[in-house]
Amino acid sequence: MSFVKRIFSLLARLAARYPGLLALVGFVSGVASFFLVEREQDKFAQLVSLLMVGGWFLLMLENLLKRGVSHWFGAELPDPVVRFATQMVHQESLFFVIPFFFITTAWNSGQLVFTGLLMAMAAISVIDPIYYKWLAPRRWLYFFYHGFTLFAVLLTALPILLHIPTAEAYRWSLGIATVLSFLNMVRDLSFAWWRRAALALGLVAAAAAVGVLARPWVPPANLWLTQVAITPSINNREKAPEKRLKALGSAQLEDGLYAYTAIHAPRGLRERIYHVWRLNGKTVDKIPLDINGGREAGYRAWSHKLNFPPYPQGNWRIDVVTEANQVIGVLRFSVSDNPQASEEAQEKTLPEKVITSPAELIRDPIVDTLTEEGQALLDNVLKEKPAGETD
């Protein structure tokens, strides 16, 4: 035990004398986690996710941890060590989640704001003058930084560790992050307790409201499209599209049309997603599909639309979304007046990511979220479920 005490004491003195050392170690291990999870996700993602959540658990027990170290190792944890440990957890966490969100982000949508903010926060975590002299003294901003990082970690880790659907993981992540932020604010602020509680409650309520309304702007960290196609028929033996179309004539809709998607998801995750069919921006159908994670090339699922409007000509868009209305990706095709017009897309069409106008970027996702929440409540009351096809 005396040897352990000496090693610990030496590490504490080195951390206090060379504060940049822990920041460098955190940065290198964070980048290592980045590539480890990206390349060997199925094998190592659960372990790395557990380590991330464990780091946050220790961070929340900061005072108990300091007393325990003093009791067992006979050395006090210097304040610089505690601060750098917090910084290292931020670095590890942000560099862990960024590859997931980078892959799943629709870069021409509001999701750009969320992922861009994560990347900016990761840069701040490795620049000591900004982290300690600008961020840390502004306590309200620091608590936002802290809570937002935890929110992103839980969004990524909970589906991997507990195999819970993305919509449920979003609710749990938002709830845990807001509650812990509230407790930290009440403990840290210096004025009267009732003023601290009121201020913290107001800020947390505002953050929770923004989290609910901004769900379309948050990428689903563990879901992304690996292949998509608009096709008139599916090869049931191969579970693959016969053709890939990007333009067709109205006569070709008589036998229906398939929207084919292959969706990557973590092993063990069962998820309900939706194909939302839109004509010139107006929703005309929403078809649910259940997927299972674990297939390297993505779980293959498709919706088959048979009934089209009397005048189907125009630009069609199929949004692939989660139950929480988070956009996974988009398929596009057009229908022309020429009844026999047809144009095939390139083989293995890559998924397209969304959004074209300020109205779609800001107003429409919020309106759609509120509308669909009301419709979901009504559907639950009436116990009606639309039908879809999966493999």
TrEMBL record:
Domain of life: Bacteria
Residues spanning the membrane: 20-37, 43-61, 89-107, 113-131, 143-164, 198-218
Domain DUF5924 residue range list: 2-259
Record-linked Pfam families: DUF2914, DUF5924
Keywords: Membrane, Transmembrane, Transmembrane helix
Boundaries of every DUF2914 domain copy: 271-335
Descriptive protein name: DUF2914 domain-containing protein
Organism: Gilvimarinus xylanilyticus
Source taxonomy: Bacteria, Pseudomonadati, Pseudomonadota, Gammaproteobacteria, Cellvibrionales
